[in-house]
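Morning - copper (II) ion inputs below, output right after.
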Amino acid sequence: MAPLRRVLAALALSLAACALLLGVGTPAASAHDALVAATPADGSTLPAAPGELALEFSGVVQELGAQVAVTGPGGDAVAQGPAEVVGSTLTQPLDADLAAGTYAVAWRVTSADGHPISGTTTFTVAGDAAAAAGPVQEASAAAPAGSSSSGPAIGIGAAVVLVVAVALAARQLRGRR
Ligand SMILES: [Cu+2]
């Protein structure tokens, strides 16, 4: 869920930037575009390597200046050639036979109203070896997620303590009556 939150934060930031630009510059007649869907979907795990990446936007985006960087698990750039934009869909060919691992996508396009928008997604190629070692991979992936969720865990702990304290207090009050 963390990558999704990051994307949403990035989208919110670009939307805020657009709103700011709209407010300062032109009257708010035109609307900026936003990412509607990504293929592979953000945070998804694929059984096989995808041949290309597709980003669908809420409006027609400009091909000029459209950039997509796809970085593999080893830090290698795996985008193959320039991104192609047809209407509201951007397609980025990828290297053939991507190795198993997680890939980071960073995109930037100019929306129809002339405002640049950008964001990030990730996807994971499971591959044969990774699929066989699936549970092990999940366990190692769960470790950082667990540590990052210590905040909510502490919150739940505090809530439990509060509930117990209220219950004890109520019991004491009842005892006095
Ligand atoms: Cu805009």
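Note: Residues 150-176 form the longest helix (27 residues).

O.
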